[in-house]
Amino acid sequence: WDETHFGKMGSYYINRTFFFDVHPPLGKMLIGLAGYLSGYDGTFPFQKPGDRYEQHNYMGMRGVRPHRLFCAFLGSCLVPFAYLTVLELSKSLPAALLTAFILIFDTGCITLSQYILLDPILMFFLMGAVLSMVKCNSCANRPFSASWWFWLSLTGVNLAGAMGVKFVGLFVVLLVGLNTIYDLWDLLGNLSLSLVVFGKHLLARVLCLIVLPLALYTAMFAVHFTVLNKSGPGDGFFSSAFQSQLIGNNLHNVSIPE
């Protein structure tokens, strides 16, 4: 059923048609990009659930056998993400294998990953953020090393990705935030660390877990508004001054007083 929404929004990006949606733009942009790169021309109407795609090349956006592409690929990444996360937390190979086994045969996960939906994209970034956070924690004994910076920065990138797909990504932001507060509190109580070193730890986390995600999140909207430069169904949600910038709108290039 949701394919009629998110597939259509992928088409809007390919056709550069402006629209409005309650979710942030990243997931739909990635769906549109996957369709564009795989040869979909953005002409399928997505009028009602169950319509046959016929000759339209939808495989790149969805992911059905034998062509497991974008959404199915991201859904399949959840298995190694879960395996590595549990292995890092428990140091138990049987526990990690059991986790991966459960996810491989989870009907809901398999089904969600086979359609043009935001869910596999969201879960990819959610689990990616948790994995990055756990790997960063494992590097606590060698702070400011290359691997420590890599996993800390990747955590910030995944936080931006999760928030950029759906606002429910706030929950993983909360999880990482609580982990960071605990980590900093522990460092502050370490009397062998000077306040200068603690300040460096604090600054590193501010840069990677606040500034970087905010910059990436803002950049998503910059791309969104740059790509969607033609008049469409979302015009009426915005001001006359904004509508005057959209090609094909009745107000296009009209001088709008402040």
Automatic annotation (TrEMBL):
Family named by the database record? Belongs to the glycosyltransferase 39 family.
Any stretches that span the bilayer, and where are they? Answer: 67-86, 93-115, 149-182, 202-223
Residues of the ArnT-like N-terminal domain:
1-229
- The gene for this chain is Pomt2
Q: Which PANTHER family match?
A: DOLICHYL-PHOSPHATE-MANNOSE--PROTEIN MANNOSYLTRANSFERASE (PTHR10050), PROTEIN O-MANNOSYL-TRANSFERASE 2 (PTHR10050:SF46)
What does the record give as the organism's lineage? Answer: Eukaryota, Metazoa, Chordata, Craniata, Vertebrata
User: What keywords are annotated for this sequence in UniProt?
Assistant: Glycosyltransferase, Membrane, Transferase, Transmembrane, Transmembrane helix
Give the UniProt subcellular location, in the record's own words: Endomembrane system
Where this protein primarily resides, as one coarse class? membrane
Q: How does it sit in the membrane?
A: Multi-pass membrane protein
Protein's GO biological process: protein O-linked glycosylation
Q: In which pathway does it act?
A: Protein modification; protein glycosylation
Query: GO CC: one term?
Result: endomembrane system
Recorded hits in Pfam families, A to Z, give:
PMT
**What is this protein's name?**
Protein O-mannosyl-transferase 2
Q: Which GO terms describe its molecular function?
A: mannosyltransferase activity
